[in-house]
Amino acid sequence: MRGPDGLDAGSDHGDEGRLAQSGIPHLDGGGPDFGRMIEALRLIQERITAASPPDAVVAETAGVLEKLAATLGPYEVDESRQIAGRRMDLPGRGQALVPVLDIDDWDEQHVRARVALGRFYLGAGGAAHGGVLSLIFDEMLGRLANTGRTRSRTAFLHVNYRNITPIGPELRVEAHVDRVEGRKRFLTGAIYHDGTLTADAEGLFVELRPGQP
Fold this sequence. Notes:
By secondary structure, this protein is α+β, with helices and mostly antiparallel strands. Helices cover 24% and strands 29% of the residues. The strands form two sheets. Strands 1-2-6-7-8-5 form a six-stranded antiparallel beta sheet, with helices on one face. Strands 3-4 form a two-stranded antiparallel sheet.
């Protein structure tokens, strides 16, 4: 997502390692080129998915990727120190798993955003893989469930696939807090293409007890 905690890009993150508003620890590591590295990884995912290269190019590409993996190997750290997914100042939190969501409006009760899915997320027949829609809902509803509140985890997520969600064009994504009952937070979400509902979701997120990871 673009913008810290799903909010405006001008917000102050504060000290490295603190919990962001959405409950995700924020780290400032990786320097100014970390985002460029993640964007390059996204582009590689897209190009590999869409390509049908000759054997020689496949072999050459595999060699380059193996060298890159070996370069990064000595710098592996435990989860508490990893940077990917915790750079709240970067699109997608500085990770390449969840598609980048461009936020239009976000508060403690709702969020509106836009996303365009590339070939990496293709299922078949020009339609997005159903799993990536669940991924978008889990990311967006989960972040909203934690906005302005203590941290929670996904307990239940149900997705209805109403129409084909196309690869390529811009999609509209919405999420809302339906109600809060004690530690339970009930949220809903929807994805639209050109005004047509393509998928919707219901999620339950449960507030963590003190000391729960």
